[in-house]
Amino acid sequence: MTPTQSPICLIYAGGTFGSHGTPLSALPAEIFLPILSNLYGTTDHHIKILNNQIIKDSSLMTPSDFVGFYELILTAYHDGYRKFVLITGTDTLSFLAAFLAHAFDEFTDLSLVITGSMQPLLLPQCADLSINYDSDAWNNLSQSLDLAAAQCGTFVHFHHQSFNAKHTQKINSQAPNAFMGADAIFNKSSPPSINTAIYLNQLPSLIKRAKSVKIRSVYALPNDPNALADELLVAADACAVILIGYGAGNLPKSQAIIDALAKLTDRGVAIICTTMCAYGGTNTDYAAGAWQYEHGIWASGSLTIPSIYGQILWLSITQKLTAWHWKSS
Fold this sequence. Notes:
Blueprint: E1 8-12, E2 19-20, E3 25-26, H1 29-40, E4 47-49, H2 63-78, E5 83-87, H3 93-103, E6 111-115, H4 137-150, E7 153-158, E8 161-170, E9 179-183, H5 196-212, E10 215-219, H6 225-234, E11 240-245, H7 255-266, E12 270-275, H8 287-290, E13 298-299, H9 305-317, H10 323-328
Parallel strand pairs: 1-4, 1-5, 5-6, 6-7, 10-11, 11-12, 12-13
Antiparallel strand pairs: 2-3, 7-8, 8-9
InterPro entries: Asp/glu_Ase-like_sf, Asparaginase/glutaminase-like, Asparaginase_C, L-asparaginase_C, L-asparaginase_I, L-asparaginase_N, L-asparaginase_N_sf
GO molecular function: asparaginase activity
Organism: Moraxella catarrhalis
């Protein structure tokens, strides 16, 4: 089936955008979406609501939820839809966006915009569910609808800025300009040489693997190096470890840490080093950072932590978590 008016499929997944009350919690779709429809009904866009069962605070999102959104969008794509806007919470928005960007990397005629808000669309303490016209919610959504209608690619749109969905991070817990990232790259639409039936047939395996996948993080602190080695060993049950170092990815060097890295790599655990700094990424300029890459650690370059997580998750559930695929993704 091919839609005749090229509608934009809207997915409501909760988050601050659709929250109400004190403390804030996401409203059910049957309450929130009719209110929202009164707003987007004033636009020039033809909106189709996709039936989504994953509505929650984004801090509760799991790999299975991420795959659930992938399944929802993939199924609609198979049915002929090409334009999507996903409203979710900001806490894990960048993680989800990076995952979906990798998942739909080959879908060159798809437009997917992930957005949210720092303030609810509705006045939190108003019993009649009145619109909060000072909120950033409607501006973020209306601009996301415009972006989905005009451009192809996978994007994060927030506070008048469009980002490459593979590379964003929330850097402010309060301000409306809460995200930073790489600028969006707008591509011309071109028919992809893919068979969506193949992707749909892979879904049961992806869903199964998402239930058991485990990605851990280890955060460097100025403790005895043995403490860092111990934390690495605890992470040996994971498919991958995000190792968060200082500065340009610098880490203390000790025999205990080298031995721990060897044990993890021998078990097939991918270890990706990044930095706790918001800007600049990692490099090998310092001896304190360069040594680790001789012991099986993969470089993350300028990728943010959510970007790394999203890429790891997609590669893991598709059984492509190798150094070669990491570098080429």
